[in-house]
Amino acid sequence: MIYLLSGAPGAGKGTQSDMLVEHLGFRKMSTGDALRDCAKEATELGARVAAIMNKGEFVADDLLFDIVAAGLDKFAREHGNGGNSGDAPLKVVLDGYPRNINQAEALSSLSDKYPVMRYVLLQIDHEHSISRAVGRVICGACRAIYHRDTNPPQQENRCDGCGGQLVQRGDDVRASLEKRLTIYKRETEPLIAYYRERDKLAEVNADRSVEQVFADIKELVLQDA
Ligand code: AMP
Description:
Elements: E1 2-7, H1 13-24, E2 27-30, H2 31-40, H3 44-54, H4 61-79, E3 92-95, H5 101-108, E4 116-123, H6 126-134, E5 136-139, E6 145-147, E7 166-167, H7 174-188, H8 190-197, E8 201-205, H9 210-224
Parallel strand pairs: 1-3, 1-4, 2-3, 4-8
Antiparallel strand pairs: 5-6, 5-7
Helix pairs in contact: 1-9, 2-3, 4-5, 6-7
The protein binds adenosine monophosphate (AMP).
Adenosine monophosphate binds next to helix 2 and helix 3.
């Protein structure tokens, strides 16, 4: 079963997905992380993806669908039994997918194998979204997420967990963020109505601490179990 985590940049999709992995046995797929890996490759596709991401625009739906479908199949193989049977069903959190109606329709074509349980919308106010994303730094090795002011590492620029170097994302700069927020409103917000109509929408106030937000998400997951 699939949980979708959605929200504006800085809403905490990555952090909350990591907590679902750590505390509730989820597998996580972040389309942003998958694309950042792709962008690092010295290939024509890598260069194209990097350019799109740095402008704050969306990468093509077809490529995203291939990434997500392949990732889900990999999780299912690793889980065994096609991911659906047994005592502990496969639980996957998708961080950052779908981001528009076309992607939601593509995902629903996989619903026999991978049914969506919830579309969890992390709601955050505009300025808070920008300040969270602008201050965000990420471990280049293990991808742990920090914030320069609200969740700084113990040692400057070093990951507390693995000692890796912390880096700022190329798209976490104001110009790119304003663009991402505009695209978010235009492309992603229609998904709220889409999942509400299908009775999957869960809205969570994300203008709170990581722990408070996670407590609400955890309650949802436990209700569904
Ligand atoms: P994120 O790490 O989720 O903030 O995503 C970073 C960037 O990756 C986005 O601004 C897009 O350029 C790209 N991206 C991630 N997920 C998607 C998606 N589902 N559709 C299109 N582009 C995406």
